[in-house]
């Protein structure tokens, strides 16, 4: 059991390292696109199940509240929190529709939907993404394992290539935290992160 504890931490660290080495340029490009949309007054919607539902709420809370900086509130909604909507839509339609229906109700063209799924196969997330695409909403997948169905549906898939659900989730929440950091920097310390000298300044 001592080994379990120690190797779980090492595996988590290794999974994060492998993910960032493979995705660092794409993350920058996609985060910039998301931040630009928030700057233009668009919002971020998030959906996912179980631990990923918790991640959605965590990320939305950082943006609506505060991450590291005192600044205005930023628009982000976790579609995982309203138990009346979740039970009504789940009961009257289907559990597969619980996020799709909220995307239809709350989403607007130009918004961003982040779907979080370690398998990439949760039907309620797939349906939400399909609805979002129909509505002109940018779709980003925080995925895992082999990316599942969502890797071929979202505009921008990020796949944590590990078959352990918790290890994948640990990278997802790091990605979510870094997104919050990036958005704060992009909107409120732009000069610091994007100094106005020369081409190729990318941090
Ligand atoms: O947190 C965990 C496992 O670590 C679970 O609650 C897990 O999120 C649930 O089984 C989800 O239903 C898995 O869905 P998904 O990630 O495959 O979309
Ligand atoms: Zn978990």
TrEMBL record:
The gene is gmhA. It holds the Pfam family SIS_2. This is Phosphoheptose isomerase. CDD domains: SIS_GmhA. Catalyzes the isomerization of sedoheptulose 7-phosphate in D-glycero-D-manno-heptose 7-phosphate. One of its GO terms (cellular component) is cytoplasm. Its cofactor is Zn(2+). It comes from the Bacteria. Residues 34-193 form the SIS domain. GO terms for molecular function: carbohydrate derivative binding; D-sedoheptulose 7-phosphate isomerase activity; zinc ion binding.
